[in-house]
Design a protein that fits this description.
The complex is a heterodimer of chains A (260) and B (603).
Chain A lengths: L1 H19 L3 H6 L2 H13 L3 H13 L5 H13 L3 H14 L4 H11 L13 H6 L2 H4 L2 H24 L8 H25 L2 E4 L3 E5 L8 E6 L3 E5 L6 E5 L5 E5 L3 E3 L3
Antiparallel strand pairs in A: 1-4, 1-7, 2-3, 4-5, 5-6
Helix pairs in contact in A: 3-4, 4-5, 5-6, 6-7, 10-11
Chain B lengths: L3 H29 L2 E5 L3 E3 L4 E7 L3 E6 L7 E15 L2 E14 L3 E5 L3 E4 L2 E4 L5 E6 L1 H5 L5 E8 L2 E2 L5 E9 L3 E7 L6 E4 L7 E7 L2 E14 L3 E5 L3 E8 L4 H5 L6 E2 L5 E8 L3 E5 L15 E9 L3 E3 L4 E11 L14 E5 L3 E7 L4 E14 L3 E5 L3 E6 L4 E6 L3 E6 L9 E6 L7 E5 L22 H29 L1 H23 L4 H19 L9 H10 L4 H17 L4 H25 L2
Parallel strand pairs in B: 2-10, 12-22, 24-32
Antiparallel strand pairs in B: 1-3, 3-6, 4-8, 5-6, 7-10, 8-9, 11-13, 13-17, 14-19, 15-17, 16-17, 18-22, 19-21, 20-21, 23-25, 25-28, 26-28, 27-28, 29-32, 30-31, 33-34
The chains are: A alpha+beta (260), B alpha+beta (603).
Amino acid sequence: MNAVRIPLALAALMALLMSTLPPLWAQEARSPAVIAELGREAYREGDYKKAQASFESLIEQGHTSGPLYFNLGNTYYRMGEIDKAILAYRRAQLYLPRDGDIEANLEHVRQEVEDKLEVEDGSVGLRQLVFWYDGLTLQEQTWMTLVLGAFAWAGLFLWRLRGKGRLPLSVPVLLVATAITATTTGVRHYELTRSPGAVVIHPEITARSGTDAKSVALFYLHAGAEVTARGDLDGDWLQIELPDGQRGWVERRFIGLVRP
Amino acid sequence: MVAPHRQRILHLWVALCGVVMLALSVAEAQAAETIEVTLDRIQVQVGEPITVTAKVNGRVSGAIKLPNLPDYVVTRGPSQRSVTNIVNFQVQRYTEYTWTLSSRKPGTFEFGPITATVDGKTTRSAAYPFAITVGTKEKSSGARPDVFVTASVEPKVAYPGQQVIYTLRIHRAVQVTNYRYAPPAFDGFLEEPMDENAQTETTTEIGGRPYVVKEVRHALFPTRAGTLEIGSATIIAEVLTERRNRRRRNDPFDVFFDSPFGGRAEQRELIAEPIKMRVKPLPPGAPDGFYGLVGDFDIDWKISSRKLAQGASSTLTIDIEGTGNIRDIKVPDLSLEGFKVYEDSPALQLAFDPRSRRLKGQKQFKLALIPLESGRVTLPPATLPFFDPSEGKYRTVSTQPIPLAVTEGSGEEDAHIATQAKQREGGREVTILGEDILPLKTIDDPHGAEVFGPAHPAALGLFMGPPLAYLGLVLFLGWRERDAADPAARRRRRALPEALAAIKAARGAIADDPKEAFRSLDRAVTGFLADRLSLEGRALTPREAQELIASRGASEDLQGDVKRLLEALEQAQYMPATTASDAASARCDEAIDILKRLDRELP
């Protein structure tokens, strides 16, 4: 009997172990490109929950990109979650800041937001002057600074090694340009990491004067409202700032940061 | 005292002045309560002006009222001016009011007293009435005037809702400028504004005299059956005539004035006779759905796509055009079951058709159709019943049915119909039927999160590396310059490495030639001292070496060691080769130790 039982037990154990392993085709299906295409297919078929799951899984795996966040924004919009749609579009803009489709969809979805927080930005003139601040990704700005710096320092090296002749005008120009782009890149980095844009992802939240529910209620915000986060981004409460400068504390779980 | 005759003269003067002043005051008092009315003529032709002037002495408060006049008399004015005259020592101050009257009809009417409140009292002008006679030039002379107007309607008998064209014709055989047109009252009609194309100008000949005929048209639609009257139309224009005699030119009350063309411009009022027309009621037997359209119409439609997805939007465009009361056209009742229908604002275009000399137009309806069920469906024909006055009967026009194929869709894709009409300058209205987000993007290459930013170590290294390297270069070049400028310092700095290298070479030569190795070792030590102490020559006796390093502050032990080493090296050069070979290696170690101590102690 044992001669029969032992092989059967081993076979059953092997079958059990194999059943826990993913099949080979499943391994193929989990490649990022396939998951992305599955999400698009689900979206086209109207299965938005499946599309959302596909796009979210890619993001959780670290496969983030502008088109991916854009598609996720479309999916959330179709699901009626305009707050998450806005958050996804804003994140897509981090990767594709010059993409007109994202801007168009974002403007379309913003029309459905209850809170109208469009306030004239006082730094519009400066932002137009430093056009790359909003027009380039942080990575592009970093590369731009490095390339400009490489040319500037190379010119300075050559001038120094050739002896102290007349310094070509291009060298100080490049050095100044490098300094400006380095400054704006640093500011952009600070803005994204320390005071990033944020979106209210709850139907209605109350901004208070302090970090507890007993503090004075200052104002209400509704799903999709776009604000700026301040201070400690990892605590239970987050300080937010409205475009007109008003500040208040809200529960962190009700806020989605544009810079994830 | 004054002489009596002189006193009499003085009295006479005083009395005379008093009489004059009394006379002036009486004259002024007599004029103060007068309203004097004058008419420049009392026999005129139809449309010819009559100038009425009222001189009022005193302050007028409130309005000055003309007498009651017949309806067909048109009044313009008054204009007002203040006048002060001294005539025969009489001061006359008065206010002059001027009106212009004209009659649209021939006949006779009375012009009664004018009433005004003068100096707080209600005052009337002289009680006698003027009898004004209005005639017609045609009847009196039998010839056509230079300028005249006529009016007509087409057709003369119409139905309610039928388009009627009222045409006012201005005939002129002379030059006429500055038209001012007061259209008639179209009571009982709806009027549709006409564009400039409805105004035409032709030439004709009447009684052998050429005339330019300007036609002004109005599109009218009777609102009820019965006899309707179109009131008289009035045109005030300046007729250019030849210059009249000098006397009238210099008359300040002349209503004529010079024209820049050399003639004289006479202001005339041209009046078209009222017109009565009959409006017949519509005959019985109106078809179902008839709601009062009268004219000649045609209907057509088209759909943006015959293959639809369930829940997707498609645009159905219905065009109705023709002549008639187009503005009253309503969207046809389509009775579309299984569709959601969103109606956009209709677009109406009306224009004068020169060929038919009527107002022709088009009304376009746009409907967004959203099928709720899949399958094959057919849009039933759209019908439009109307009364055709040219044939005198009711007609119905209809469209062709449209077959549609509706495929299954998500059912959640309801179109967001908006009716925001955006006007582009000089272009046609663009109607936005729906708004939606843009479709998905292709994710060609999902990649990892962006990690390369300014805080990335590689980025920091690349950013800080060049300036640090440049700083190093600057320091190096500076050191090199300073080194080249001070050879003694360079000798001092290089003394130990060169000596150690020489000792190493000497150690390597021990096996081959021990004596030569000792000589090399001796040169290395004395050379080190010469370089370190900046001596020109390299030959030193042990004693000289001891004294030199003593003078530079070396310790006594070191002084002794240096002296003994140099003495030993001198002696070793004269030893037998076998003995020298054994001692050479130990002397090398000793020399290295002493040179390092010297390098530390010497300045």
